[in-house]
């Protein structure tokens, strides 16, 4: 009966992979067994179509030919939802702070696995730790006329990304941690939700045509010390669409930074997750609340690293409570005076 399933998922628990990595055990034998497992199931499958095809295995470019065969199989079965996740596919050293051998690079997606006829059924695509070239992505978008969801994460080969989906059905777009990316240009008239996670906020994001966008989330992770502002440049200068109603921002608050905040005239739900270096003045965050005049739901989460968070010794508990009260007081006052319906204040 299993050969007629219309949903095929090949997943290895993340905890199991991490156990091998931290114990510095070789994954070569495990990978061979995993590849043989997928090969066997694909060979035995007899259903005329597949709704879901998901591979979440620690594989790399060494297994490109086998992976290409699996994708072609799924496309021939008129797959609807396609997910490829090859996290931890490179060498152990690559994930323990060292250097990986060049031969153990990410799987590179070729263009010949997606024919024009086989793409017409795809509605959701998720690529994690899969390398993509710009021309392959553009080809895929031009052929997938029914695509509604696109998620791309940790693709090392993308430097300039053009999302062109005019007159099509793309509603959800997520771009996470593509660290070589320098520019993103979006033309998607049906796009409703957009997520973008960047290393330091220097990627230029141009939402050229997104008239249906109502929800956006931005996160920029400050791994280096070169960027010292609160907002990346594209958020400072770009006037967001008037229809945007939900905005979520993950950021790092740096003492003495510059805080020019644009106006978000129709945002009704605002969520801020802020990493702070030390117990500095948090009043600049009030600029976000004032920039959203129609906001009625506000969630603020403050995160202190262990090195900056005060030790919870008995003598310091009173001081810690004073910090909490002093931080939340201006936001509570704003909520009372502006009629906010929901205010969530969290400190971690």
How would you characterize this protein structure?
- The longest helix has 22 residues, at 317-338.
- The protein has helices spanning 14-22, 28-44, 64-76, 134-143, 233-237, 286-290, 317-338; strands at residues 7-11, 52-56, 81-85, 107-108, 124-128, 130-131, 149-153, 160-164, 172-176, 183-187, 193-198, 204-209, 215-220, 246-253, 269-276, 297-303, 342-347.
- The chain has a twelve-stranded parallel beta sheet, with helices on one face. Strands 8-10-12 form a three-stranded parallel beta sheet.
- The protein is an alpha/beta fold and 348 residues long.
- It has a domain at 1-158.
Summarize the structure.
The chain is α/β, with parallel strands linked by helices. 23% of the residues lie in helices and 26% in strands.
Key traits:
3-stranded parallel sheet; alpha/beta; 348 residues; 7 helices; globular
| Continuous helix count | 7
**What is the overall silhouette?**
globular
The secondary-structure class comes to alpha/beta
Number of strands: 17
- Main sheet: strands, sense, barrel: 12 strands, parallel
How large a portion of the residues is in β-strands, by DSSP E? Answer: 25-35%
Mean pLDDT: 79
Neighbour order of strands in the largest sheet: 1-2-3-5-7-9-11-13-14-15-16-17
**Element-by-element helix/strand order:** EHHEHEEEEHEEEEEEEHEEHEHE
**Whole-number radius of gyration?**
23 Å
Residue ranges: pLDDT <50 for 5 or more in a row?
92-103, 223-229, 312-322
Helix content: 10-25%
Query: For the terminal residues, how far apart are their CA atoms?
Result: 49 Å
